[in-house]
Design goal:
This protein has helices spanning 10-21, 23-34, 44-70, 78-104, 111-121, 143-154, 174-183, 196-207, 226-230, 253-257, 269-281, 296-301, 312-322, 343-359, 375-380, 384-406, 416-437, 444-467, 490-511, 522-542, 636-647, 660-677; strands at 132-138, 163-169, 186-188, 212-215, 220-222, 239-243, 292-295, 326-329, 335-337, 555-563, 566-573, 577-583, 592-596, 603-611, 625-631. The chain has 678 residues and is α+β, with helices and mostly antiparallel strands. A 7-stranded mixed β-sheet has the order 3-2-1-4-7-6-8, sandwiched between helices. A 6-stranded antiparallel β-barrel has the order 10-11-12-15-14-13. Helix 1 runs parallel beside helix 17 (416-437), helix 6 (143-154) packs parallel to helix 7 and helix 16 packs parallel to helix 19. It is a multi-pass membrane protein. Keywords: Glycosyltransferase, Membrane, Transferase, Transmembrane, Transmembrane helix.
Length: 678
Amino acid sequence: MTKRTKTESPSDSVKTGTALALVPTLAVVAIFLIGPFNWSRHRSWARTVTCAFVGLVALRYMAWRLTETVLPYPRDGVNFYWVWFVFIVEALAFIEVVLFLILMGRYVDRSAEADRLGRSFFQRRQSELPAVDVFIPSYNEPLDVLERTIVGALALDYPKDNLKVYVLDDGRRDWLKAFCEGRGAIHVTRSDNAHAKAGNMNNGLKVSSGDFVAIFDADFVPYRNFLRRTLPFFSDETIGIVQTPQHFFNVDPVQSNLGLENIWPDEQRLFFDEIAPSRDGWDVSFCCGSCSIARRKAVDAIGGFPTESITEDLLTTLSMLNKGYKTRYLNERLSMGLAAENLTGYFVQRERWCQGGIQTLYLHNGPLRGPGLSLFQRIMFLPLSWLVQYLVRFVVLLVPVIYLWFGALPLYFTGVEDYVSHQVPLLAAYFLLMLWITPTRYLPVVSSAVGTFAAFRMLPTVISSLVRPFGKPFKVTPKGSGNEENVFDAYTFTWIAGFIIVTAVGLVINIVPETARIEGAFSVIAALWAGINIVVLVIASLICFEKPRRLFQAFKLDEPVSVDGSQGRLVSLSLEKAVVAVPTESRFQSTCVRLDIDGFAPIGAELRQVTQRRGDISRSGDKRRYYLHLHFGLEGAERDKMIVKLYTGRYSQDIPDIDKVAVSVNLLLRAFGRTRTA
């Protein structure tokens, strides 16, 4: 028996073991500080090296999990199968992560290529430029949504003799026909709505003849330079589609319900800003429907837009790959549209994307059976993210609950130090990678909360899509006026509240010695895991409470303007309202005023409110500016001119960076406020 020296004690051994266990994590942090955080994240070599390093950390973890925590577990009944189930779910997550790392190992920015190709493409005479048809498929959208898109499409910077705008109306509305005729757009209907959006666009192909087809959903407004930036890519005859990102002029329900409208980007920014350019670097980018342009010859080669799936855009890409055509992604803001305006629309949209992705597994032109696809393309077009991410999030919530209530270990536990030395480095490596690659699009806790919130509705959709992939018909995302209903998501909140309660009660029960059901070193890990889950669930629960939708989608700007001859600054503008900052000495005799905006005829406006802002009061207490809230109603050509001004490229609603402190403070205030309300 080894004798312990006078200076050695059990506590010293524990401290030494814990310190050694943290060495791998500290090494991961040090490598990121020395390497990636000093490299450009847009260089492919830097991405490749960093992603390969994170992949090795993940492989080390999985090797430890299999050899040290799964295979040694005795076959002692139900718990044995639970251990293997958790490991299989982790293995699926590992595969998804590896594919993600491979994907993010490349990055391409095609803006310089667009510049170069554009110079030669537009040197030709107008008569030599290709004819372009703009398709605007519509079903039930109101005029306040459609007018922006139609007017914006007609204002595209392209010779009018070479451009036609088709409004494909599956709602067969007389008022829309009249609006199109008044603006110069072509109104197209059909006798039925067979095959939904894809069938509608195929009907558009029958009545049009342009060399290229640009597609904008009814709620997306093209910027004036859209064609000038995208068309030159078709100089390469192998290019079938050019896709551009989807940006939004409103906040999505996640931003709104969390109270992060001005400090947290919309949920789709991660895909369009980071993932899509990386997919393009591997030649596996895909059409996302709206804000894209396709070569008609390529569309004809695949027999028109595919109707077998409710996501015709993804299937169009796969069908074109079958024929040798490629998709290019130009990561430039070239349009703006409406994000889902409430949780109902949010889930209609996501469930459609999920079901459509899974449907491709069963189709002859999908990633498994489609001809002409390389093995790499087949793998990269598998809907693995839809299949895995929500299952993983659900199991992450379930593991500590199962342990706290039933004492069922999720692995053969070899000690806290062993666990810390293998899992913590992996978590650190992944989070640091995401913070490096997507510095303005990702925060671990908030991003996890958004995914957790979605999991309770999306996991049933994944299961039903696997069992009955064609069981649900195409459903249009509701948008615009008439879509103002704000509904408390009781279904999701019930699940979240249930998990918070069983997790918290499980913790309390096991803190009290008389009621404790578990013992052993894993209890520390389980308690920490449960605590993190509760924080994530609390944030996720806030998304369930819908906030009233803004009536005005205003743009922030700073331009000179005058009100009844008094000079001021135009700080906010929408189609119905302007906010003007004027000096405090300004005086107005009436609430009916004249607003003069550069480029517009004088606008008669109603002064409904005068406000001040805290930042405009000096330390001495002197008030510096008034803010006039002016309401007006534009019609005809003047309203169209305002649409072009606001929505076709001059302004944006981007959130360029994440204020991490502001996000944390806002979430705390929102949670505290919701608790007090409850």
